[in-house]
Amino acid sequence: MKIQDALREISPQRDADGILEILLAPTGISSAGFPYLDQQSYEKFRDTQPHLFMSGMRLLETIDHLCDIGKDSSAGPDRDSFFQAADVIRRVILTSVITAPSDLWLLHHVLRAFSVLGLSEILAGGEGLDMEEIKNKYSLDPGAIKIDIQFLCSRGLLRRQDGRFFTTEQALHGNVFITPGIQYAADTSGAIAEAMQHRHAELWQRIFSGETLADNQRAALSSLFTEETGFGRKPAPDPQEAGWVPSWLTIELGYRLLPVVLGLRASGITRKLQVGNYFWPECEKVVGSDLSQGIRELMVLCGAVVLDTSTSNTYGTVTRMGERMFQRGPGPFGIIEAYHAYVVQLPKILTVGKKFLHVSRGSNLVASQIANRVSFRHANDALDQFCHDTGFDFNVFIEHALGHGEATRQRYKRWQLTGASTPLRFVGADLEDEAIQAAIAEHKQGKLPQNMLFVSNADIGKPEVLLVAMDQEDIDTNGAVMVVGNGFHEIRKQTASSMTDVFRKYHDAGILLIFTEESGLLAEDVVQTAWNTYHAGFRYVHERSGQVLRPDRDPGEKVTKQPARASWEYCATKAGYILADDYCFRGRTIFPYRPANGRNPAISVNHFCVPGPLAKYLGLSY
User: Fold this and answer.
1) pTM higher than 0.70, yes or no?
2) Which of 327, 329, 373, 604 has the greatest number of CB atoms lying within 10 Å of its CB?
3) What CATH number is attached to the domain comprising 377?
4) DSSP β-ladder status, 512-518 and 481-485
5) Which of these three, 97, 132, 151, is where a domain ends?
6) What's residue 93's pLDDT?
7) Alpha helices in 302-428 (DSSP H)
């Protein structure tokens, strides 16, 4: 029996009818060997099939059930295509577990600010916002609120029409702008506002590690699981997402989930949270019955834990969604949560600006290390391959935007394993003293090489700081290798011209540069990806703090229909670097299909930049 006949004979159950047509649509295989959907099928899935949290877990179960039935059908191209489509949809669902919570956490804060400032009431009433009236009518800074408007548009909650911004039908259906307004307006005691000011991730880490919290700190955590703050309270009618656009309830779940996952990771608990294992049996003993019950209910609602009513087990077991969330989520979660100081003060920022705020990079160090570990491995792999292919050799390795020195740790281990007799000198540089001190602590523990120079107060946008420090230590920069993990976008007030000047100074010093950067995606790309990336939130926090993301390559005006920000490729090659494409590594593309315009940028790219004179000496023909 053909697979179409076998599947369509089954009795409809759960969402089988909704997903079946998508699974039976044609698929293809990319040049890298990965299956992909056609664009129409993916867009139908994205816009009609809710796939966050418990909805995603149920959809995974449905797909597994359909695959079990399909195994008994006759072999053939249609059968192969079905299983390829199932693989793609599973991957999209499990990706959303990593990418969505950070955006949902941010949405909670933005919507809270809109409620406090009276903007939610206006949007819920259908009036719409005119950006030209923002300053005079609402006494808000147009440049500041533009970042929030862009973020809400990218998450499907606002749309632009005739120069004004209106709520989308999905946002109205999900009570996104209505419920928060009611919630905060009813808070006459100020308890909700007080609870939101605490940094929950830090509190969870402390209590999970056995520390006793102050009464007001514990009360802040307890309030997260009360109806007054939106947990477990379902407004009428009960909102259900029609597709990927989140309802108010989903936003509130993501807001609570992200800090708990970070706390579990920071206290060392997540290493035990693997699929099929009990969810942290010691939870109640450590945090008390009230918080334990709230955490467990949260995990069930988010699809991370499933309860087995047929046994006496009250802990629940970790699902594959849960394992993925616990193991892969802390990287992106922590990068976004590091900007807590900005989002809790958002009403004030939108009114008087952000000059009174500063975010320490120290809170971002571990998250950045987790997120960059794989990209550093690819960078070191590319460097080894480049040396093998061209005969290039180096004796100085620099890591800028140092953090905990993950790229250096990897390179040092490789150097030790080769048993090389030629010494390799290491240099670590960072602007933040907290980052340097963290690396020095690793150095004292023997995790970083002993012959390492640490350069503090080193702004990556001011190459002369690093170059002078190396010159003073008689370390030759010519032919040195420098690896940077997501550091160049942190240069404030940069333009294409100033960024080119920065690259030129590193180039003229003879430094081979390998740097990783998240791609600066276009606005139309971000909304079309839905939850397939966490770029909307990544862009939001970086633009909010004055940082600049750039496309990896020039997308071309024929594709974008408008001028785009100058790419990293443009700035680096304008400075004299040769971009060695064979050694650049592109991460996962943003669309799980082939777009009609042929453009499918990577989420993150390792740029391998060879100084012009060195490329000529090595005979590179780029």
Assistant:
1) yes
2) 329
3) 3.40.50.150
4) parallel
5) 97
6) 96
7) 320-328, 330-337, 340-343, 346-352, 365-390, 406-418
